[in-house]
Hints:
Blueprint: H1 2-11, E1 23-28, H2 33-44, E2 48-55, H3 57-61, H4 72-79, E3 87-93, E4 96-102, H5 104-107
Parallel strand pairs: 1-2
Antiparallel strand pairs: 2-3, 3-4
Amino acid sequence: MRRSLAGLYDWLACADGPGLGLSELAFVHAGAKQRKVVALRLYSEGKIRSLLLSMTPGDLRNVAALTWPVPVRSVKSAISNLAAGQHALVWLESDGITVDGVRLERLAR
């Protein structure tokens, strides 16, 4: 068993040691604020290339409470086109921020 685990460890290329390396994409499910706080910090530190945040209408009302790697006015501007009560998928990538609205009843199916 130990030999198998050692082979798996080598295959996973864990040469950088414990901790986070560079990730292409991170998805943060709506809910606890702390998940968004950590993900935004990792994105700001360059450890995540693209970040997709799932945000409820309640989260969207409190965007200024988070530390964004882009001006908060850019975030507010991006979400300003959403219909009232829409859930949002907020994409952060090197070329800026994009927000897609999703009707909540569509998510419940």
